[in-house]
Amino acid sequence: MAEEEDDLDTQPAPDEAHRLDAFRVECQRDPAAFSKLHGRAFLLLRRGGDKPLNRPTRPGRTLVQSTPPEDSRELSPSQYLVFPIRKTERSIIARFYSVGQTRNNDVVVRDVTVSKFHAFFQDADDGKGFVLLDARSTNGTFVNGERVPRQGVGNPVPVRSGDKVRFGGVELSFLTAQELCELVRAAATAAGKRR
Prior knowledge:
By secondary structure, the protein is α+β, with helices and mostly antiparallel strands. Helices cover 20% and strands 24% of the residues. The chain has one domain (2-194): Tumour Suppressor Smad4 (Sandwich), CATH 2.60.200.20. The strands form two sheets. It has a seven-stranded antiparallel β-sheet with strand order 1-3-2-12-11-8-9.
């Protein structure tokens, strides 16, 4: 069984993250259609460079993070990565949106400080928002600097737009589809003014 789990790491992870610029045209269309196509919420990674994540080079254990990540610096919107929070055919569990390093998660974050199955989002009771629980990860899950309880140990934590969500050493911003579109439009406007 362990060999089968390691096989998950040897395959390239799907590229679920898109550059912020990739949503520019679609955000100008109907927001409901955008949300239906891409999901109700997104995680925005504000780190730059060609390799914004510390990707694992081979199968292995999650690296233990000894210190929290430094605050991310503001970058050009074209360097932001956007991870849709939505169900995929890769994850077989229908009741939540899984986050982890391996390709069988709904949200794939390929970083050595992220566990294979790190955390999961669930729909909130109101059906509009999301809650988050840690899946007994090595480096923990945090919302606005506060540790999220592990599955079976505490209640899920509500996640609201603008919250900082950290999986291991990767800090992301949680946004609704509407706020992502507003950010994309603002970035497009700012880019037009610089030209």
